[in-house]
Amino acid sequence: MDPRSPEPVDPDRRAAFLDAVTELLAAVNEREQRQRTGDTRSVAAELTEHLGVDPRGLAVLTEDVSALRALDADVAVEVVVGRTEGARLVGIGGGEQRRHSSLSEIIEASSTWHQYPLGAVDYQRTPSGPDSERRVVAFGLHLFHHGGAPVALLARAASPQHGQEARLEVVSTDEDTAVAVLAEIREAMISHSVLRGQVFSLSANPFGPSAGGVTFVPRRPVPADDVILPEGTLEKVERQVLGVARHRERLLAAGQHLKRGVLLYGPPGTGKTHTVRHLLGASPTTTAIVLAGQSLSLVRLATEIAHALQPAVIVLEDCDLISEDRSFHDGPQPLLFEVLDAMDGLGADADVAFLLTTNRADLLERALAQRPGRVDLAVEVPLPDDAARGRLFRLYANGLPLTDDALEDAAARTAGATASFVKEVIRRAVLLAAEAGRPLDDAALRDAVDELTDDSQRITRSLLGHPGEDGP
């Protein structure tokens, strides 16, 4: 052998050398972690002690949760974990990197490189109602026992900026136990849902001022006397929307279906939305989901939520925006089909009402407006007649120093006006009196009527729903 040639390296010595380097790097990393956090306890060590085995050999079950249901998931986890004694909640350090790592990756990195020490639990405040909030676990590890088996559950909130939904990750020495835990959480998300019995809207924008796309709306009662409609109209709507829910057992016993659709149609400003508010206020235990504008695209999700949280009402405002007759367009209307599929997909025993409003019933797809099982009742909310306008003026002037004669005169001079127009007349009268520095009186009301019926206010009248001289 040439003395200048390198001596062959023994494979065993090479492996031993590499192991030594690995241990050295791990030790250096652990020392840095200790200096930075003052805590040498890693997630892997904590899980090994809790589970009784090396967690790297266990399967991790993962369940993604829609941002719209993330709040329910947090409540459900608390319910399921709270059924056992000795449960603990610990945090995981490691900065933002942990949010991009699965529980399996965290366990592996923690075991091999001593990354991810225990740390503080991350929380965030999330609306749980119109006037309430809940402290939600944004990143935390639940350690508990279920049926005698040790379980670890990592709960993380949604991260819209990273395109990540909320997620639950469960590991146990018994995989069937992990499956059972996730099943119980799904059930608790329904039985303990914070959405049940609330009024809320859905949004496709997770960055808005809402709970992951859920915006809670106060349920303010609107007395029936404040809903000015032709005689008998409100009673018909109430019977179809509320009466079915009241008599559900009798209807089911007679073999009758519960799901129903009600269409309120008429010119803008005549009181369709006001009528909807009355119906929602008159059913305080009913879950109500309001969709309008771009959120109409979430009708399928809304239907799934309504079915789970029934009795429920789904309000589709200005549905003509998505349900125009297909003959007006070159191709099909996918969103229309989603509405139809959602309405058809519910079982006959589903206590879910679809409440639709539109300003243009003539544009509605016949399949939506006329076929049984989709819309069972179509009710016109017309322009108020003379008597109705008089009632509207008295309603909006309640408590103000205006005489009955002045209110009747204003009603007579505003033929064809909508409820919105009448409301603006009263507001304008108060404003004119304030600007003039005098008390509100009948003269201010006359001035307000004169101003809003003047030719120069034609566009304003149109914006308030007044059809003008050419009719609706």
Short description:
This protein is of the alpha/beta class and 472 residues long. The chain has helices spanning 11-37, 43-51, 70-81, 103-113, 175-191, 233-246, 248-253, 272-281, 299-308, 334-345, 366-369, 386-396, 404-412, 419-436, 442-453, 458-463, and strands at residues 60-65, 88-92, 118-119, 122-129, 132-146, 149-156, 166-172, 199-202, 214-217, 260-265, 287-291, 312-316, 352-358, 377-380. Strands 1, 2, 3, 4, 5, 6 and 7 form a seven-stranded antiparallel beta sheet that branches. A seven-stranded mixed beta sheet has the order 9-8-11-12-13-10-14, with helices on both faces.
Structure notes:
The structure is a single chain. This protein is an alpha/beta fold and 472 residues long. The chain is built from 16 helices and 14 strands. It has 3 domains: 33-191, no CATH class; 214-380, P-loop containing nucleotide triphosphate hydrolases (Rossmann fold); 386-463, Helicase, Ruva Protein, domain 3. It has helices spanning 11-37, 43-51, 70-81, 103-113, 175-191, 233-246, 248-253, 272-281, 299-308, 334-345, 366-369, 386-396, 404-412, 419-436, 442-453, 458-463, and strands at 60-65, 88-92, 118-119, 122-129, 132-146, 149-156, 166-172, 199-202, 214-217, 260-265, 287-291, 312-316, 352-358, 377-380. The chain is elongated, with a radius of gyration of 32 Å. The protein starts with 10 loop residues before the first helix and ends in a 9-residue tail after the last helix.
